[in-house]
Amino acid sequence: MINNICFVISSLIKGGQPEQLLAKCDPLGKFPYMKSILTFENTDDGFMQLYGTFLIDTPVAKYFEMFFSRGIATNANENPLDHISQIFKEEQIDVINDMLKKLWLEDFYAFTQELGGTTAAVMKEMLEFEADRRAISIMINSFSTPLNDPNRRDDRQELFASFGKLYPDGIKMFKEVGAVDQLGTVLESYPVYYEIFDKAQRDGVEIEDLLYEAEVKLNRLGFDGQSHFACFWSYVKMKEQEKRNIFWITECINQKLKDSEMINRWIPLF
């Protein structure tokens, strides 16, 4: 839902056609009010109506409110509508997504820990890995972007969740990291992640693929035990990986790849 809302708002501000945008939205994140964008007009009144529909009447509204209100608080004289529009025009959509998902992940982590019992114990392990996986991926993807500039690294730091095995010491050291080898130096203190990093460098594979592989192994454990809710999280994450597998296989077919090593980079679930 966060992906869909960010995609729709940023695309409409840039002049996209509502009918085409709806067709590109992820079915998992669709909701009844989305059809209202078909009547959207790219004016202040139209954008305010869109803002009200998406950012008030949806379950993820509070994360958008937290994200935007923080910026408005530092620009007290600025019209909130202008501020929101400016963010979507100037900021990279991936950065907005990462910030919103960080706010959601922290909230969800707190919720699962309040449940207690086996659910809290299993979800703690899986969500901490999720937070760490996101942090490492954000670091790697930031090296060729403005976020890697020493003057923008505080902005990058804000994208990391406030929990996980890497938090707080590793996350704090990330601020001084500006290249892949420096990232490896930080991860040396975390054997699980350094082993993944070292294998990626040694075998010439994407570290994110190895992180997803480790995530699949972890999610298999979500089906162990009884009387807990972690299995539902594991089921959804497995389905997400299944979707990535299908996309990869179809892309290989589309490009007529014949290298078996390249083709077999999909990740088996069981």
Brief account:
It contains 14 helices and no strands. The protein is mainly alpha-helical and 270 residues long.
- Count of β-strands: 0
Counting helices, strands and paired strands, the structural category is: mainly alpha
User: What global shape is seen?
Assistant: globular
**Overall pLDDT level:** 86
Question: Tell me about the biggest sheet?
Answer: none
Question: Portion of residues in helices?
Answer: 55-70%
Order of helices and strands: HHHHHHHHHHHHHH
Describe this structure in words.
This protein has helices at 2-13, 18-24, 44-56, 61-73, 80-90, 93-115, 117-142, 153-157, 169-174, 180-187, 191-203, 207-220, 230-254, 260-263. The chain is an all-alpha fold. It is globular and about 55 Å long. The model has no long low-confidence stretch (mean pLDDT 86). The protein has two domains: 2-90, no CATH class; 94-237, no CATH class. It is 67% helix and 0% strand. It contains 14 helices and no strands.
Structural topology:
Blueprint lengths: L1 H12 L4 H7 L19 H13 L4 H13 L6 H11 L2 H23 L1 H26 L10 H5 L11 H6 L5 H8 L3 H13 L3 H14 L9 H25 L5 H4 L7
List keywords for this structure.
270 residues; 67% helix
